[in-house]
What we know:
- Residues 7-143 form the Pus10-like C-terminal domain.
- The chain has 152 residues and is an alpha+beta fold.
- It has helices at 20-28, 49-57, 109-114, 124-128; strands spanning 34-43, 59-66, 79-93, 96-104, 120-121, 132-143.
Amino acid sequence: MKPLLSSDKIRVRDLQIVTREAMGRMKEGEEEKTKSYTALVWTQRPIQKEDIGFIDEIKDLTLGQKTPLRVLHRRALAVRQRVIHSMNARYVDDHHFYLRLKTQAGTYIKEFVHGDFGRTKPNLCELLKTDTDILELDVESVDVDWPPAIPE
Length: 152
């Protein structure tokens, strides 16, 4: 099947009707799904080259995340283990850098950056030993092998 919609901005592929069983398989695979993000981060103290290098070296960091305060009114209070597979930083100026992350699906990125009053551990504030906050957040990709490709 050819793409139903295509432009330089949007492309739809593999559009199909899926069974309940296929949806169940997708839900089962959510824990394995990864997402990639880019965030603009502010730091209270000026950041150094060493900070950028330190961030780039962190791999497979396991977080304990309590349900964030911002979603507590609609989600049960729980502590969830999530993994940040990789991070890298790009210096902008003394108090700003771009942070690219590849994470396990379900990771609360904003709370990882600012700590959510200690509800996410470890968090970027602890790692960099300064207050940090997130100014922008973009989802770059959702990496999941679903739905099944339709042969052309």
